[in-house]
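We modelled the chain as a single entity of 61 amino acids. Its sequence is:
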Amino acid sequence: MTNDMIRIGEIKEKHPREMVNIELIEKYSHYARMPIRMPDEQDYTALLRREMLRRMENKKE
């Protein structure tokens, strides 16, 4: 694994490609529950969602 980190405001988060499935789901759930998100948090949530969808699509093949 590489050390890909994404800055979300003051926090550094792991890149979704580097996460195992349960970690990806937990992180997405955390950000999805937030009532108000900053633009960088919205972008990170979208990145998490795209990675989950990519993995689900690969699983179908």
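As a brief sanity check on the tokenised model: The chain has a mean pLDDT of 91. The radius of gyration is 12 Å.
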